[in-house]
Amino acid sequence: MSADGGPPGGYSKRLLVTGGAGFIASHLIISLVENHSDYLVINLDKLDYCASLKNLDGVSCKPNYKFLQGDICDSQFIKQLFEAENIDVVLHFAAQTHVDLSFLDSFKFAYVNTYGTHVILNAAYEAAVEKFIYISTDEVYGGSLSEEFDETSPKRPTNPYASSKAAAESFVFSFWERYKFPVIVTRSSNVYGPHQYPEKVIPKFISLLQHNRKCSIHGSGRQTRSFLYASDVVDALLTILKVGKAGEIYNIGSSFEISVTQLAKELIQRIQNTSSDTETEHWIDYVKDRPVNDLRYLMKSEKMHSLGWRPKVQWKEGIERTIQWYKNHFHNWKNAENALEPFPCHG
Fold first, then answer.
1. Angle at Cα 286 formed by Cα 23 and Cα 299, nearest 5°?
2. Which H, E and C letters describe 305-326, residue by residue?
3. 165 and 82 belong to one structural domain
């Protein structure tokens, strides 16, 4: 038994996934637990407002899964965790991620995303883990209407969330430069699918419409986003876990792009069964834009393609799966209703 009564040894790898009760990380944990019985997967999560252990109901009783509640910013707790659990690999997801909220509480984002990453990075380095994968975002590049960003493009973040992630990346790479500590950074396009707290645009619009409320669109709605289905991102991360090279950045991009207004219209037609433009427009409410709203992100993902990864789930299939999931799981979070208010009104 481990020091705190966890599963016995004998696992080929012991993986720590931070923020594992959140969106993408919960999908990754399920895949790892179900397909790698030789891995012990440890989920560390603070259980903040956007996390839900219900996302992990299917694996919660598996012998190779373990949940620990704790804060990545608690350096003493994190140090003890690494000492007790003999971690081999870290996949660091835990973060404050909602751009709207970052404008209202930028210090919290800097603290959790930058300081918290430094805490867990330092503990992982002292424990000599064999791989540290940091989950970042395409938003560190800033927006551009025409430029396609590759991994060497400069970082030009335009909001506190993206700035905190970019700063955290700098700490991560400083450990590679100084110590050759085996770090990898991933930057993905917007991700959608089941398990996502409904503050983000796709689950928010779906949930609003399923509650017979209008979609609230920031500003003009002309801003476009590229979307990847959750299982495709999991496949990318598993590929990086297996063959990703230390000291590298990997863009995980999508060729599917849609404007926020077009997204709203498509969801309205699917959920409210509208047949005319007038009927569809009835379900849209244009609201005040947030302080900065990047119009477009375009990423090159050739480096990931060279590792053998490409997205598999087509938009039609992915969005239908997502719509169906939210019909029955909106209350996976106690305070999900708070997410449905437009910026800057948050409960």
1. 45
2. HHCCCCCCCCHHHHHHHHHHHH
3. yes
Give me the phi and psi of 142, to 5 degrees please: 75, 180
- Report the CATH number at residue 319: 3.90.25.10
Residue linked to tokens 């009564």:
5
Catalytic residues: 138-139, 161
Count structural domains, the chain. Answer: 2
Residues 237 and 285 in one domain: no
For the segment 81-102, what is each residue's pLDDT rounded down to a tens digit?
999 999 999 999 999 988 888 8
Strand (E) or helix (H) holding 103: helix 99-104
Which alpha helices (DSSP H) does 222-290 contain, by range?
230-243, 260-271, 277-281
Q: What dihedral do alpha carbons 313, 317, 323, 326 form, nearest 10°?
A: -50
What confidence tens digit (pLDDT) does each residue in 159-217 have? Answer: 999 999 999 999 999 999 999 999 999 999 999 999 999 999 999 999 999 999 999 99
Q: At residue 2, what are phi and psi to the nearest 5 degrees?
A: -75, 170
Structural domain of residue 171, as residue ranges?
13-192+228-252
63 and 41 in a common domain: yes
- Diameter over CA atoms, the chain: 64
pLDDT digits (tens, 9 = 90+) for 120-170: 999 999 999 999 999 999 999 998 878 899 999 999 999 999 999 999 999
Burial 273-301 (b: 16+ CB within 10 A, else e): ebeeeeebeebbeebeebeebbebbbbeb
- Calculate what percentage of the chain has a pLDDT beyond 90: 84
80: which 2 tokens? Answer: 């003890």
Half-sphere exposure at residue 103, Cβ-oriented, CA atoms within 13 angstroms: 13
Token pair 């905190």 is found at: 164
